[in-house]
Specification:
The radius of gyration is 30 Å and the shape is elongated. With about 350 residues, the protein is an alpha/beta fold. The chain has two domains: about 5-55 and about 90-270, TIM Barrel (Alpha-Beta Barrel), CATH 3.20.20; about 280-345, Type Iii Antifreeze Protein Isoform Hplc 12 (Alpha-Beta Complex). About 30% of the residues lie in helices and about 15% in strands. The two termini are about 55 Å apart.
Length: about 350
Amino acid sequence: MSEVSLGGRMVGDGHPCFIIGEIGSNHNNDFDAALALIDVAKQAGCDAVKFQSYTADGLYSRYTPRSSEMNGRSLEEDTPYTLIKRIQMPVEWHAPLKKHCDQRGIIFCSTPFDESFVDVLEDVEVPFYKVASFELTHYPLLNKIATTGKPVILATGNSGLADIELAMDTLRSAGCSNIILLHCVSAYPARQDEMNLRCLLTLKEAFHCSVGLSDHTEDNMAAVIARTLGACVIEKHITLDRKTAGPDHPFAMDPQQLASLVKAVRLTESMLGDGWKEIQAGELENHKIGRRSLVAAHALRAGEVVTMEAVVVKRPGMGLHPKYFELICGHRLSQPINADEWFTWEHFFSK
């Protein structure tokens, strides 16, 4: 699979997982909270933070009905339009948020939900674009993003392979060749038994690109499993407090949970290793003590011929490997050996 550079970090097979702290709208239109969330993501070890760039007028019809997921997370009189109107991120925040990320040493990005925000994000020089699952069929937006020539992370929630293929064709036809697909279940929160994480393997095989996970479950298990299946990007919503009012807080990770997730993913990578089967450093002592070697069943004099009855296989593994059993039988010793002493080549070849 091809490698992709995201803000100077190489992403793909053989590289550490790229972890995105999805701030989204969880700043609740509080600039100080947005800054604090950037700091939380950096402290936890995330590679990037992601915001969402939209306006209610560009996103929803005023007549869009409430969804069941809004219950308990918004005002009773809210519609999707009025909720988004209240939490949309001001355009003028983009530049100072990007500056704060640069100062903290974490990558800034944001998901544009209409073409005008691509221009806004180009002005602040985002290194890549993330396309939300619900924008998978927003072809004018995909075309606009592709013309920037920057890498694209494309979430695939709420879609089948045909939708994904058309989105991929749209991006590639408009000039985007560096695409990472994120498996996603667009439910908030997503149920663990609906995660279908083997889709990571399906996406990689079907589209020959790197894959990752946009995770809306309430813990870090899906992210860890996804990493074992080859996910090279993990995106997770974050919040300062899960009890805060708002649509994305209840299933987001608080600072402590986020730190645990990053630690779990990094530990998973360390445990997965490189796949090359060899003796590990921690095994060396037990390898010497616990493995077997060829040992003298009784004392033998110099010049004696070693018989099969004179050789046993015992621990430790400090003598000749058991595979040489038949080779040494029938040969004369050049020096004596004591009973229970392990054979070495020096017993047969004088220095």
